[in-house]
Amino acid sequence: MLVLLPPSETKHPGGDGPPLDLGALSTPELTGVRTELVEALVELAGDVPGARAALGVSARQDGEIARNAELRTSATLPVLDRYTGVLYDALDVASLTRAQRARADARLAVGSALFGLVRGGDRIPAYRLSAGSALPGLPTLRAIWRPALEPVLAAEPGLVVDLRSGAYAALAPVAGAVTVQVLSERPDGTRSVVSHFNKATKGRLARLLATTTGEPADVVGLRRLLRRAGLHVEHAGGTALTLVEPAI
């Protein structure tokens, strides 16, 4: 089972690992695209006004551009320790046992605008690049990543659970992947998507899927696993599941 997560804009700074080694990352067939984008970001960082425009950041976020300038030399952290924010707070990898962390590193992957697809244990530096960023002189990130990344994901054995947000899922859709919509249900029965609530629930779901000793083979097996865990799961057919939780 492979669980695809979105990255986060916010990231833990620093690290305790050696500088970025693109050749050491999982899925080495993506090294060429990764190299192109790293070089483009480092070069762009030399033009601070241009970098602000391309990355969609303000002058108060110039530290993000400085991080990009040091992509090749800054310290690294494992992917699951690098990203922060609501989803990753709910995932809470720091509290996993050693065995659970090993399963998480094997099962969880992040769909990154810079690295394409990185596994939980891959070591990466802090960086700034979003799926919607437009780098000068290059095609859209979707046009860059889709031809390289889509075949990689299509060849993934076993069940793929795609928890990526729309912009990152668009970089390389996965045919047949299970998708999960999270709805918040009010006491009157009305439902809606709430961004913070959605991220937190997906973080808890990722934790469950990363640590379970079960290995669902299809959407029905996944639905069964989630219901056994006490989740309210609706399945109208196909590969789409809906998680419904009471509004807080």
TrEMBL record:
Signal peptide: none annotated. GO terms for cellular component: cytosol. Residues 1-21 are annotated as: Disordered. Pfam families: H2O2_YaaD (PF03883). InterPro entries: YaaA. It comes from the Bacteria. One of its GO terms (biological process) is response to hydroperoxide. NCBIfam families: PRK02101.2-1. PANTHER family: PEROXIDE STRESS RESISTANCE PROTEIN YAAA, PEROXIDE STRESS RESPONSE PROTEIN YAAA. This is Peroxide stress protein YaaA. It comes from Blastococcus aggregatus.
